[in-house]
Amino acid sequence: MKLIYDVHDKPRWSQTIVFAFQQMIAIMAATLLVPMLVSGFGLEADPAAALFGAGIGTLVYILCTRGKSPVFLGSSFTFLGAYAASIGQNYGYWGMLIGVLFAGLVYVVIALIIKIVGSRWVNKLMPAVIIGPIVTLIGLSLSGTATGWTASNGGSHAIEQAAKLLDGTDVVVQGSASDYSLVYIIVGIFTFLMIVIASVKGTKGMKLIPFIVGIGAGYVLALILTLIGNAANVQALQILSFDPFKEAFSPFGITSIVDYPKFFFLKAIQTNGTFAPIDGKAIANIALIYVPIAVVELAQHIADHKNLGNIINKDLITDPGLDKTLMGDGLGSIVGAAFGGAANTTYGESIGCVAITGNASIRTIGVAGIGCMLLSFFTPFVALINSIPKCVMGGACIALYGFIAVSGLQMLKRVDLGENKNLFVVSAILVTGIGGLTLDFGFNKLTGSPVLQITALATALIVGIVTNLIVNNGKLQEDEPSSISEHVKSMSEVDIPDAPKKAKK
Questions:
Q1: pLDDT tens-digit profile of 255-289?
Q2: Domain-by-domain residue ranges, the chain?
Q3: End-to-end CA distance of the chain
Q4: What pLDDT is recorded for position 497?
């Protein structure tokens, strides 16, 4: 696609701060939700600490990828089942930290192997006919979260659906079908339409910050309706909760303005001895819980970077290389979890934001990471973000997740779906993925779950690869032209009309 700011372009600092703030808003709702869910499992996890962890994890990722992959790392939903299992075994804070350490090391080990054997096999094993529907599947699997948040202002069923599609885990969160409200839907759709208007019909400046415009407008509408609802005692209109502000400012003190996040490693040290001892048996059990998830997550990591590469017109599997993106993801998770508790992962919301705004500047992502770290100490900001109604974020996610799904469809443009061999591959991936087909092996009595579960996304990928091999008589072939780089070369020659003037590098 046409970019307004390429990866190494450097917008003016005043613009960069605004663009970074937009990235932060795009990823914050989900990033802050994960520690809230963890708290529901029985451990106290601080959303501000998770925000700090996401920020520092992103900086580690940027460092490992040499500033060539513009994506933000946020708290991963995929490991929610593992968190619940390790907490259920009374391994406490150390159990989660050790588990994420194992998961991150899996990525590091795979990265070292790929560094030795190379990554060209990825383009051969996963041509556009496979990776296109996989990326589409990622966007569609998240769509339930967007519509659930929009319809119920809480999205309990949406989160459960997304978790099952992405990792096969049953996740129970607060909320019910009775939370459904047309008022929520109106606010959510209004937010979405404001993003559309800002992106399509707005000024040049507005087109670069459509999410700030849309989410801001949705927040104002929710606030107005809430004030009317409070005055008229109409509960249906009381969309926005003021509880985050009450908790921050009552009673008022220095911590109402500045407060340090409750870092996860500090909680682990403070509660040492409170939970079950972490001996050799415990470590083996924790590894058994977390390692399989990290292995099957490789499929989504590759799909995310193929998708991002398609958006920014670069082959990230080759440059900076799959070994470096995996290393960044793994180390970013380990470092991020030490502070925030949750493993990090490349965020579809961030990729969608890059696609919609056309701003792939790595400076924007870096400043967003630093901004998350700094603002995690600023109590009013954390309260403001926590107060954004889920229906507002649901409206924004309709655009974000939709762009992920559509970007996958765009990869299929060079695939002839008139040929049955391609049609069978695509249909197999979409049906098995959307249908939530998982492959379960063994049974772990300690966790009450399979010893190894191949997620729906990974299962769809396996089925797609096997089908593609069968219809092509076992031959692996790269897309035509033979590499993404040739597409990139031709796309780089296209002029961008009416693009804002870029600041000098």
A1: 889 998 999 999 999 887 788 888 888 898 899 88
A2: 13-485
A3: 22
A4: 40
Look at residue 464 in the predicted model and tell me its pLDDT. Answer: 93
Instruction: Give rounded-to-5 percent helix, strand, coil for the chain.
Output: 70, 5, 30
pLDDT band of residue 145 (cuts 50, 70, 90) is confident
Retrieve residue 40's tokens: 């529901």
Peptide bond preceding 47 in cis form (omega within 30 of 0):
no
Q: Are 391 and 119 in contact (CB under 8 A)?
A: no
Cβ–Cβ < 8 Å for 326, 107: yes
**C-alpha–C-alpha distance, residues 449 and 455, integer Å:** 13
Bond preceding residue 251 cis, omega within 30 of 0: yes
Strand 344-346 to strand 73-75: parallel, antiparallel, or no bridges (unpaired)?
antiparallel
Higher-confidence position of 292 and 311: 311
Q: Which two tokens stand for residue 232?
A: 């008229």
Question: 3-class DSSP state for residue 137?
Answer: helix
The CA distance from 350 to 353, in Å, is 5
Q: Measured between alpha carbons, how far is residue 472 from residues 12, 122, 420, 432, 476 in Å? A: 50, 17, 11, 21, 8
Burial of 23 (0-12, 13-18, 19+ CB in 10 A): buried
Cβ proximity of 377 and 22 under 8 Å: no
3-state secondary structure of 85: helix
Residue 180 and residue 441: Cα distance in Å, rounded? 37
Sign of CA dihedral 315, 319, 322, 327: negative
Are 104 and 334 in contact, with CB atoms under 8 Å apart? yes
Name beta bridge partners: 75.
344
| Model confidence, pTM | 0.81
Coil vs helix vs strand at 73: strand
**238 C-beta neighbours (distance < 10 Å), count:** 18
**Number of Cα atoms under 13 Å in the Cβ half of residue 379:** 17
